[in-house]
Structures are given as structure tokens and as C-alpha cells.
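User: I've been trying to design a sequence by hand for this structure and keep getting stuck. Would you show me what you'd pick, starting by listing the structure so we're on the same page?

Assistant: Good idea, let's start from the same input. This is the structure you sent:
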């Protein structure tokens, strides 16, 4: 073998054991489970629910940029979700007084009512998904995911 050439095992990648792929597949599978429930019952897509979830966490209106940062969705996806939510009467949108290019978002009364219906269902679905894990395992998973996320962000900032 020539210097710098990878051996057969190093040159191939077993996708089923590749961590980024496994995390992505697991996340997509869980998102589909949630999405099917939200779309069927409430007519919401995953991006729409994520925007509502961010807005529902706080009581004060929120700039669009904060939603983008909290969801880590791209600007276009958030913008489209916000437009649909405004059209459905679930979110209000106004121009920020200090920056005419920025928008301030909030759940409407109707949106808040829907949010309050969905939250208990989201908790129940999460409990169902994690039912096979003990308290220690859940705490470890939480720490591991936070650590992997922080490291991925750190690498992405280079």
C-alpha cells in the first residue's frame, strides 16, 4: 500500500454505524411521528410547530432572528412557516420599530389556545418514545446530546 492510502476498512464507511447518520435518521423518524400527529389533528407542519413552540416558551413577542437561532432552521424555512401561521391566524407579525427589516412575532390568542392543546400531547408522545429508558439513561442522553450539539456548533464556526 502506498503511503497515505487508506486500508479497505478505513476507505469504506458503514453508514449504519456512522453517528451523524444515525442521529439524523433517529431525529427524522421521531419528527415524522410528531408531524403525523400535528398535521392530522391540527394542520401544522414540523417547521410551523417549531415556530409556535419557540413563541410559546416566552410571554414576550420575539424577533424572527431569535426563532431562527432557537430552531436552527434556515431563514427561508422560518419565513415560510411564519407566513403560513399568520395566514392561519395563529401568529401575529409586526415590523420592529428599531429595524424596519426585522419582524416581531407572537402567538395570537388562537395560536396560544392551540399551543396549549398541543403541549400536553407533545409531552405524552415524548414519554412514549422514551418509555424504555430509565431516569439515569435520560439524564445521560440529555448530557450527551447537549455535548454533541455544542461540539458540532463549535466545529461549524471554524
Amino acid at each position: 500500500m502506498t503511503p497515505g492510502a487508506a486500508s479497505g476498512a478505513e476507505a469504506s464507511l458503514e453508514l449504519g454505524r456512522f453517528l451523524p447518520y444515525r442521529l439524523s435518521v433517529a431525529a427524522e423518524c421521531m419528527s415524522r411521528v410528531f408531524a403525523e400527529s400535528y398535521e392530522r389533528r391540527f394542520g401544522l407542519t414540523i417547521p410551523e410547530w417549531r415556530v409556535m413552540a419557540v413563541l410559546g416558551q416566552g410571554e414576550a413577542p420575539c424577533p424572527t432572528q431569535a426563532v431562527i437561532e432557537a430552531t436552527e432552521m434556515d431563514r427561508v424555512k422560518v419565513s415560510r412557516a411564519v407566513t403560513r401561521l399568520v395566514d392561519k391566524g395563529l401568529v401575529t407579525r409586526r415590523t420592529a420599530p428599531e429595524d424596519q427589516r426585522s419582524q416581531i412575532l407572537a402567538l395570537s390568542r388562537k395560536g396560544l389556545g392551540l399551543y396549549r392543546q398541543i403541549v400536553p400531547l407533545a409531552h405524552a408522545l415524548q414519554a412514549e418514545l422514551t418509555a424504555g429508558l430509565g431516569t439515569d439513561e435520560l439524564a445521560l442522553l440529555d448530557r450527551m446530546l447537549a455535548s454533541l450539539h455544542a461540539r458540532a456548533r463549535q466545529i461549524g464556526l471554524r
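That's my pick for every position. To get oriented when you compare it with your attempt: The mean pLDDT is 89. The first strand starts at residue 62 and ends at 63.
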